[in-house]
Amino acid sequence: MSESRKPAKPTIQLENDRVIVTEWRFAPGAETTWHQHDYDYVDVPQTTGKLHIQTETEKFDAELVSGVSYARTKGVKHNVVNQNDHEFVFVEIELKLISNKHFTQGRWTQLSIKVRFLTKLIKYLVKKLH
User: Fold this and answer.
1) Considering only CA atoms, which of 80, 79, 89, 77 is closest in space to residue 125?
2) What are 7-35's pLDDT values in tens digits?
3) 14 and which of 3, 4, 21, 118 could share a cystine (Cβ 3.0–4.6 Å)?
């Protein structure tokens, strides 16, 4: 973390054997600090604005729109910085491995299970947050 930057504030809203749902609140100029995810994840912006993304190999700005989700895979070390003059908020949904024991006869692959589950979860969160 830069000496002049404040840390963003994470609040875990839900954690179970399938997901970790965290609300991230960034004051202007705040950062997550360098980290990497253990699980694939989806972020759902709650505000519109620009975040500066730093990885070990690149730096870029991402224009995010409230309610427009994006997905990333686990394992990329990164830092996220709020470039706006207002608070920026997003909800992050980390997808833990889902075993076939939750489904009859293992009919779905892990990927299709995650996609179906994630689709339902995003619909639920969008209704709840609006």
Assistant:
1) 89
2) 999 999 999 999 999 999 999 999 999 99
3) 21
